[in-house]
Amino acid sequence: MEWSFQTAEELVVALHAGAVTSVELTDEAIARIERDDEVINAICVPDFDRARAAAHRADQARARGEDRPLLGIPVTVKESYNMTGLPTTWGMPPHRDYMPAEDAVQVSRLKAAGAVVLGKTNVPLGLQDIQSFNEIYGTTNNPWDHGRTPGGSSGGSAAALASGFGALSIGSDIAGSLRTPAHFCGVYAHKPTLGLAANRGMVLPSEPALPVDLDLAVVGPMARTARDLTLLLDVMAGPDPLTHGMAHRLALPPARHERLRDFRVLVLDEHPLIPTGSAVRAGVNRVAAALVDGGARVERHSSLLPDLTEAATLYTQLLISNSVARFPIESQEQLRTRAAGLSADDQSLDAVRLRAMVFSHRDWMEANNRRELHRHGWRQLFAEFDAVVCPITPTPAFPHDHNPNPLKRRIDIDGVGYPYLDQLVWAGLATMPGLPATAIPAGRSPEGLPVGVQLIGPMFEDRTPLRLAELLEQKIGGFQAPK
C-alpha cells in the first residue's frame, strides 16, 4: 500500500487501526522527497533525522493509548515559521544563518497535536512574491509543469502537497500566499479570518517573536482535501497564550448549512480592473453549475457587493504602505518626488501603489476608516448570502519570471499583457476586510494546468466556506496527483 497521497483523515484511521505506523509513513515520505524533490525543490530545509525520531515517539505514544488530532501524521512547515534547530531566513541572504530560540506558536501546536515535521518549504525573498525563488534555496517548480511557478509565497508548501511530500502544511497569506499556490498546484488552502490563528514566530528573522496584531496577514492550513483543512484549522485556531492566558480555543460557529441546496451563493467572474482569463472563468462557471445542480441559490450580481474598484484601491493602499514599512525599497525623497509627479486623475493601480509607498499615518487612517465601511457592506451582503465564489488570480500558473523589478513584469492573460501586481486584486477582495476564504480545485485548463477558485465567507464563520468546499469536492472532485 502506498500512503503518500492518502488524506490526513485516512492516515489517522489507518494509524488508529494499526494498518501502518508513523515510522513507516515518515520513511515513505522521506523516500519520496529524496526521489522526486530534486526537480521540484519544495523542501528547502529537510529535517529527516528529527522527523524519524518524532515518528518513533508518536508510535510509542499510540501504543500507550494516547490519541491526538495529528498523532504520527507527516507534515511540512513554510520556511518563514521559526522552528528551533533550523534556520529561518525568509529567503534573505543576510539571514541565512539565523537560528531562532523557540518554535513559532503554530509549530508548537503542530507538535502538540502529534504531527511529524518533515522539514521546511521554500518561499520567495521576504515572502514578497507570488512565485517561490530566492538566492539561498533556489527556485521551486510547479509539479504540473516545471517551467512554471507553483505560486507564492507558500509555493513550496503547495508543491510539496501536490507531490505527496506529507499530508498537510502550514503557510501564511497577505496577498493570496495560501490561496494562489493552492490554485496553481491543484490543492486546498484556507485563509482564516484575520486574527483567528495566532501568528507569533512567523516573523522576519530580524524581528523579535512577539504576539502582534498583524494587519491583513494571516497564518493558515493547506491540504489535499477540504476536510483535512478543517482538521488542521482546528489545531491552528485560537489566540496567543501569551496574550490570552489559557483561553486557547475559539468556539467558531458551525457552518450555516450542511446541504448544498441550502446555500445562497454570489458568483463573481469579472473585475473592473483586470480581465479574467478563459481558463479561470471556466473554473468559476464549473463551480457555479455544480451549485445550481445541487439546488443552491446562485446569483451573479448583487447591489450589496462593496465597490470592487474601491476595494482593490483600499487593499493596494493598505498592502503597499504595510510592505514598504517593513522592506524599504528606495529613498522616501525619490518616492515622494515620483508620487508628486503623478497626474491627480491617474487612478491606475500602478499610481495607487506609488502613492501608498509614501503614505502618512493620517493617509493610512483614512484608508482604514474606509475599510470599516466595506466591512459593514460585507456584513450586509452576508445577511443575504452565505458565500461568494470568485477567482484567486486571473490565470493558471504562469512561467517563471525572475525580473528583479516586479513593476517591470507583465502577466499574460489570454495573450494580452497586464501589470504583474494587478493580478492581486482578487486575493485582496477577501484580505482587505479580513474575511475567511477557502481555495479549492475547480478543474484544469486546456493545457492541463490546475485551476482553483476561492469561496469567501463571513467574518469568523470560517466553517461555512470550509463546509461548502467539502460539499463541492463531493460533487466536482478535488485534488488529483500530477502525472
Question: C-alpha Rg, in Å?
Answer: 21 Å
Straight-line N-to-C gap: 19 Å
**CATH topology (level 3) name of one domain:** Amidase signature (AS) enzymes
Low-confidence stretches: none
Description:
This protein has helices spanning 8-17, 22-40, 48-63, 105-112, 155-162, 179-185, 226-236, 241-244, 278-293, 308-326, 332-340, 349-356, 361-384, 425-431, 463-476; strands at 43-46, 74-78, 116-121, 133-134, 138-139, 168-173, 188-191, 218-223, 264-267, 297-299, 387-391, 410-413, 416-419, 437-444, 450-456. It is of the alpha/beta class and 483 residues long. It has a domain at 8-251: Amidase signature (AS) enzymes (Alpha-Beta Complex). An eleven-stranded mixed β-sheet has the order 1-3-2-6-8-7-14-15-11-9-10, sandwiched between helices. Strands 4-5 form a two-stranded antiparallel ribbon. Helix 7 (226-236) runs antiparallel to helix 15 (463-476) and helix 10 runs parallel beside helix 12. It is globular. The two termini are 19 Å apart. The mean pLDDT is 96. This is Amidase. Residues 24-464 form the Amidase domain.
